[in-house]
Design brief:
Blueprint lengths: L3 E9 L5 H14 L3 E7 L2 E8 L1 H11 L10 E6 L7 E5 L20 E2 L1 H10 L4 E4 L3 H4 L2 E3 L3 E2 L8 H6 L9 E5 L4 H12 L4 E5 L2 H9 L4 E3 L1 E2 L6 E2 L9 E2 L6 E2 L1 H5 L16 H19 L9 E8 L9 H8 L5 H9 L3 E3 L12 E2 L11 E9 L9 E5 L3 E6 L16 H9 L5 E2 L8 E7 L2 H12 L4 E9 L6 E4 L24 E8 L4 E8 L6 H8 L10 E2 L3 E2 L14 E9 L6 E5 L11
Parallel strand pairs: 2-5, 6-11, 7-9, 7-10, 10-11, 24-31
Antiparallel strand pairs: 1-3, 1-4, 2-3, 8-12, 13-14, 15-16, 17-20, 18-19, 18-20, 21-22, 22-24, 23-24, 25-28, 25-31, 26-27, 27-28, 29-30, 31-32
Length: 606
């Protein structure tokens, strides 16, 4: 025997003191473990509630004690499970949203036609228009044979639908119907006001017709607004369901369609994977535009730069540690920073967020693993190129075409105007992790991972040389050979002006070059393949070979060093472009390649 009884009821009546009535009914229903929704309005009540049969009958008896609801009648149906998830009692302006003033269902109702009378008319073939006042998605599950649907998505659209009906229908008999009759209580008087002369409303709606007449003259099921979705003419739950994505009701035929993917799509909202991807990228691109308009670093704000003490600095003083790690900044500048209380030492590094950091003094002894904060007060950061382009996004990857100049991560004068900070804002609460890095002045493809696990997998491919990379470089001079290689080792840490350099005792590095174009102006276009991934590797190798990159502010022609790390936005671009990446996708294990469209200088015709 079904465990749950469902009741649907409404009554137009003048109600007042709605707030205390709401609290009273909510407590009454919760005490009886009833679930569903009761709408109370100044014009009456409308409800769909389910629970034990005795408890639903007690609720109806309680409602009939309210003045104006003494004659409240309900339609009953049974289900194996509770179709509602919670109990709600809401105060609304209208029982059913219509938006037309002056409709009086109590004082001026339309004539009602009993279900058996309608069946007799249809059995006799009497000329009559059956007018379905429900929304299109409800009609989809079933309606009376040869019925005329209103063609609406919401009941507020009903008045406009009526005004589009042919003029001759105003003189013909019309029987309107809906799920339980409530919409017709307002639809009927409205149609009469519009000049329709023979309007009838099916008493009790489709559900009452099912209860008294079964399914004769009706095709399909009746849509209901709960987890049952559809009821058949026996008032039993049908196999119909709803699409989680678009909420469209689905018949068994719809559910058999290959485009129906539970929890994802159905035949009515399914789009090819490429369309879904394009839309997702467009939405994310719009979020990037919003996050960079204006540039986050263009507003005054403190720049709190983290500084972690490596093990080799254990036992040094603060000033000694700073000189070793950041020797390009003068000692006097660090002493001034400490005097102003802008170098802070984190307390209890193992606890987060932990106590507030305290000012550090130059003579304090540091320990490996300690954390400091270098604070720059109320600064505006230099402008950067914010034309960030999203090339690809999936559950594992974010592939970006990074413009230049734009630093990858907080450093030097930049904190908020960095690619990392911008993407953190766009993807919040998630934090895409850079798998590799590009110089601030280098444009091109850069790869981020969506999780720490994916980052580890991809970084392992970089370290083992499984990731194939191609760059384009615009260099000074014409190389003698069409193809050549540089194997000069590079320093492990930055030196003069924060730049890395060739170091005989440094880390092994290898870069392969191929000349694509020798230009009349004395420059050349090269295709570059780095076989290792050292900081500034391509730039240093070309600089050491006498072919510095055009526009490089650090590695200048004639093997000179500049003191600029990041170009101004107005400066000509540096001629280095990260063209494409090829690697094994961590989800599919297939080799994939992501490429960016080269700038004008990186084409043979430039």
């Amino acid at each position: 025997m079904p465990a749950v009884t469902n009741i649907a009821a409404y009554q137009f009546a003048t109600l007042s003191d709605l707030k205390p009535l709401r609290e009273r009914l909510l407590a009454y229903c919760k005490a009886r473990q009833l679930k569903g929704t009761i709408l109370i309005t100044p014009e009456g009540v409308n409800l769909f509630v389910a629970g034990q049969r005795s408890h639903t009958e007690e609720l109806l008896a309680e409602l009939r004690t309210i003045p104006g609801l003494e004659s409240l009648q309900a339609k009953f149906s049974d289900s194996a499970d509770q179709p509602f998830r919670r109990m709600l009692v809401k105060i609304k302006r209208e029982i059913i949203s219509f938006g037309i003033e002056g409709i009086d269902p109590v004082g001026r109702p339309s004539p009602k036609l009993a279900p058996h009378e309608l069946k007799r008319w249809l059995d006799e073939g009497r000329p009559v228009t059956l007018y379905d006042t429900r929304n299109d998605y409800e009609v989809k599950l079933g309606t009376f044979r040869n019925a005329l649907p209103a063609g609406i998505d919401h009941f507020r659209q009903f008045p406009d639908a009526v005004r589009r009906l042919p003029e001759e229908m105003k003189h013909q008999p019309i029987v309107m119907f809906c799920t339980g009759g409530i919409r017709c209580e307002k639809a009927g008087p409205f149609m009469e006001n519009e000049g329709f002369e023979q309007i009838y409303q099916l008493e009790g709606g489709i559900l009452k017709y099912f209860e008294e007449c079964g399914g004769e003259h009706y095709d399909g099921e009746c849509f209901v607004f709960d987890d049952r979705v559809g009821l058949d003419p026996n008032l039993s739950e049908s196999p119909a369901t709803r699409c989680y994505a678009c909420q469209e009701p689905l018949t068994e035929t719809d559910q058999a369609d290959p485009r129906y993917i539970f929890g994802i799509s159905c035949p009515f909202c399914h789009r090819p994977a490429e369309d879904r991807t394009a839309q997702a990228i467009a939405e994310r691109q719009a979020a990037i535009q919003q996050a960079t308009t204006p540039l986050p670093g263009s507003l005054l704000g403190d720049n709190r730069r983290p500084l972690n003490v490596p093990a080799e600095c254990d036992g040094l003083t603060v000033i000694e540690m700073l000189e070793r790690l950041l020797g390009h900044i003068p000692r006097e500048a660090w002493l001034q920073t400490c005097a102003e209380g802008r170098l802070l030492k984190r307390q209890s590094p193992g606890k987060m967020p932990g106590p507030e950091p305290v000012p550090a003094q130059p003579e304090d002894i540091v320990r490996g693993g300690e954390r400091f904060l270098h604070v720059q007060r109320a600064i505006c950061e230099p402008a950067v190129n914010a034309h960030i382009q999203l090339l690809h996004e999936d559950e594992a990857l974010v592939v970006i075409h990074k413009p230049a100049p734009l630093p990858m991560h907080p450093s030097g004068r930049f904190n908020r105007n960095t690619l990392q900070q911008i993407l953190t804002e766009v993807y919040r609460p998630y934090n895409p992790r850079p798998v590799h890095r590009l110089d601030a002045n280098t444009e091109g493809v850069v790869l981020f991972a969506r999780t720490r696990n994916f980052a580890r997998q991809l970084q392992a491919q970089f370290e083992s040389g499984q990731i194939e990379k191609r760059y384009l470089a615009h260099v000074n001079g014409h190389p003698v050979e069409d193809t050549f290689t540089c194997d000069l080792p590079l320093s492990e840490s930055p030196g003069v002006a924060g730049s890395y350099q060739v170091d005989p005792n440094g880390r092994a590095a290898r870069t392969e070059f191929q000349v694509l174009d020798r230009r009349p102006d004395g420059t050349a276009l090269l295709e570059v393949t780095p076989r290792t991934g050292r900081p500034n590797q391509i730039r240093i190798h070309l600089w050491a070979l006498g072919h510095s990159i055009v526009g490089d502010p650090t590695y200048l022609p004639e093997r000179k060093l500049g003191d600029t790390q990041t170009l101004d936005l107005s400066a000509p671009p540096m001629g280095l472009f990260a063209w494409w990446l090829e690697f094994q996708h961590p989800l599919t294990d297939q080799r994939v390649r992501y490429a960016a469209l080269p700038p004008a200088w990186a084409t043979r015709e430039a």
